[in-house]
Amino acid sequence: MFHPLTVARTSRAAEDAVAVTLAVPPPLRAAFRHVPGQHLTFRHGALRRTYSIASAAADGGADLLTVGIRHVPGGAFSAGFARELAAGSWVDVLPPRGRFTLRPRPGHFAAVAGGSGITPVLSMAATLLAAEPAARFTLLRSDRSAASAMFLDEVADLKDRHPGRFQSLHALTREERSAGLPPGRLDRARLRALLPALLPCDAVAGWYLCGPEGLIDAARGALRALGVARERVHIELFHAGAAPPEPGANAAGAADAANAQAGTLTATLDGRRASWPVAAGETLLSAVLRNRPDAPYACRGGVCGTCRARLTDGRVRMDRNYALEPAETEAGYVLACQSRPLTDRVGLDFDA
Ligand code: FES
């Protein structure tokens, strides 16, 4: 459930981004305890947005949690409500969620982060290096320009605090610099050449790719070409393209809608189970929200994973999935915001 948290402070994270630090009161510390890489969901009226936690995790739950918010021009949330957040104001927040996580353990870990994708990676690196003396972290980050790069000081601070165990390389796509990598996008061919020069790729215990679709696809392709096992690669997409059209919006959609079934959805949420009708072609999340407005969701675009649930009965068609790992879909998990029924009875368990 959502909790109102007070903003302890805000600070500039980049020319067009802000770091918002929330105070977590002692009774909520356990609920808001996070695993590095997780995000918070903010709610303002009918709008919800997820923001990754940049600050390090603490054993008993942190008293302060910092998220990074990029101001998207014209963005209903980031350019409006989020811009007005200041010390002393408050915001409704869901406890941390997400499975793009790194639990500290010995080994060498690496990340390829683009733009605001640095945010969860910063929490991972800071927590890992502080908690696990036998761990190392290599970061390859990409930004348009130095001014747009979020959390530059925090990354520099990690270098100072953990010399020899933290290595970072910064690529700027639209800006010349006197040292470091030449400007340009990190495409697949460039990553394929760069990564083995930077670190022993096959000895990396976990790869974390976070950022826009183009960079993730390039990094995933490069790692595949380098022979890295799929289960060592973890992905979090920021900014997917537009959501697919609703069925019925065009001829192909109409055919899909004809395959979709009207029927009954039985859902378990916070220990309560109930059944409701679901219309043909409707997403399961829409059907649940009509009856349980407390159901978890944020992006409604198949990206954040907040609406993850286990399919316990029937079959569904998932329009798109940028959030679940193959092992999760094989285990029966679906994204409720992207799932439409293919059988007349469908069961979902949000608590699984
Ligand atoms: S609400 Fe974000 S994936 Fe469904």
TrEMBL record:
Pfam families linked to this entry: Fer2 (PF00111), NAD_binding_1 (PF00175)
InterPro entries found in the cross-reference section: 2Fe-2S_ferredoxin-like_sf, 2Fe-2S_ferredoxin-type, 2Fe2S_fd_BS, Beta-grasp_dom_sf, FAD-bd_FR_type, FNR_nucleotide-bd, MRET, OxRdtase_FAD/NAD-bd
Limits of the FAD-binding FR-type domain: 1-103
Coiled coil: none
Keyword Iron-sulfur: yes
Record flagged with keyword Flavoprotein: yes
Residues spanning the signal sequence: none
Keywords carried by this UniProt record: 2Fe-2S, FAD, Flavoprotein, Iron, Iron-sulfur, Metal-binding, Oxidoreductase
Cofactor: FAD
Residues covered by the 2Fe-2S ferredoxin-type domain: 263-352
Protein name: 2Fe-2S iron-sulfur cluster-binding protein
